Amino acid sequence: MKKAMATVLAVIALCGCQKISPFISELMAKDRMDVDGDGIPRPDDCDDRDPKIGIRVFLRDIDRDGFGGSEKVTTCEKSEGLTDKPGDCNDGNAKIFPGSEEICDHLDNDCNGKTDDAASDQKTWYKDQDQDGYGSMTVSEVACFAQTNFVADHSDCHDDVKETHPNAIEICNKIDDNCNGQTDEEVQTASYEDADHDGFGNILVKKMACIPAPGDVTNATDCDDAHASAHPGADEICDGLDNDCNGQTDENVQSVYFADVDQDGYGSSLVTQKACSAPSGHVSNSTDCND
Q: How large is the greatest C-alpha to C-alpha distance in the chain, in angstroms?
């Protein structure tokens, strides 16, 4: 009897007949009736009054982020843990779903099939060619994590010289070793021009260098760099110069000359003058008793 009744119901469903067969009980007919004509009979139809609503299939949302994974659930009522939004590529992590912010964590946060692409917290890394721990000022890349020979620092002014970086000690080599924008600062030696080549330099012509230029000297005590006979320690001679650089000229080396008013070749002891050579109207003797 049950097999016959099932056969009759199947025939009714196939032909689309809505008329109740006299062989089917009223209760059975009501249970299998398709009032809205959407092809889904009761009790499978979630709303037999609306043809737009038939069997409802939801996705399991394990991590409760609003997006479901691959597990389907057929039910008429949407309950906690179910969603109609697909695409969750990791339903065990509530921070991973379509449209989520991509961050640097080796995960596909936004479920686009890519990992850490265009992550919001990417950093700029700088090439460290000489591997001194300090990066180039000009060569960089944006990425989540530093690649080989890339660092976060970008203060190396010579990334091809390992000994040159902001923490290096400045040495005299015509290179900015410590990357402070200056070259050989505070390590150069002062030298002075020695124009007369007497071994003593001119304080007015100072030069800073790692090695003094040829002809220059490291002292600046020459008071007259135009005359080799004038420098500290030189013998004072009667030449109109301060030979020993003591601030005096021809001291203790001049001769005494006497005025020869009557120009007879004999001078008066009453009128004298010190000089290196006899001034005009003077002689070296003082024997004239009536000049």
A: 184
Provide the pLDDT confidence category of residue 29 given band limits of 50, 70 and 90.
Answer: low
Question: 101 falls in which pLDDT band (50, 70, 90)?
Answer: very high
* Cα–Cα distance measured from residue 90 to residue 99, given in angstroms and rounded to the nearest whole number: 13
Model-wide pTM > 0.85: no
Average pLDDT over the chain reads 89
Q: How far apart are CA 40 and CA 45, in angstroms?
A: 5
Residues 77, 222: Cα–Cα separation, whole Å: 106
